[in-house]
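Trying the structure run again after the queue cleared.
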Amino acid sequence: MQGSVTEFLKPRLVYIEQINTTHAKVTLEPLERGFGHTLGNALRRILLSSMPGCAVTEVEIEGVLHEYSTKEGVQEDILEILLNLKGLAVRVAEGKDEVFITLNKSGSGPVVAGDITHDGDVEIANPEHVICHLTDDNAEIAMRIKVERGRGYVPASARIHTEEDERPIGRLLVDATYSPVDKIAYAVEAARVEQRTDLDKLVIDMETNGTLEPEEAIRRAATILAEQLDAFVDLRDVRVPEEKEEKPEFDPILLRPVDDLELTVRSANCLKAEAIHY
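Done. Tokens:
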């Protein structure tokens, strides 16, 4: 391995081990010593907290006015149904920030994500996901679900104040987890290139909810990180300098007549005797 002693190594070998459609391991090597943790931790934080995606944000269930109630013929209470709806993995076509999907089901048995009715702009990545169970043949459930595009995690309490005036009774807010990444972990192992044995190998183990492939998630996270670092590449102060108020070269009080200075009579007479009038 030839090159300048100050030249940084860049990872040349990338291995992608596809465990299943939502689980993959990505290995990058070689990295300079310490860069495994530097890059691994940065990518991990972005993948967990800053990845854009889609999530359920509001639900209207027929016959339900608030989340602390139950529905006849449904095994789960409303809070448990809302928690199950948070597990929906929804992919929405680019260009749409929010869509509405509907669910109508009757008869005894489980109600799953595959029972949801939607148009071609929406795809359910986990159609087998259980939402609730109907307990008898006469039971039924109908709901209207709002899906929005966002980033990271936004609790329902953060949206209550902004939507309280417009939100009708019966529209239930849901904590939104927009990130398509379910689990992410990284490990740094030893790597070797020719005679150098002090190098790092970064192994990223990640699972998604099925709306985004793991390797594509890493590409997007790396792009986000690179865009944030662009400002440091061309580092310069762009602040507009403050205009300083120019101070006069002399004190204006020097131009005031002696009579305006409110001096004692003796002091004023002494100045006038010396022909000092200002």
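The helical segments are 35-49, 78-86, 157-163, 214-233, 265-273. Worth checking whether this holds up in the mutant runs.
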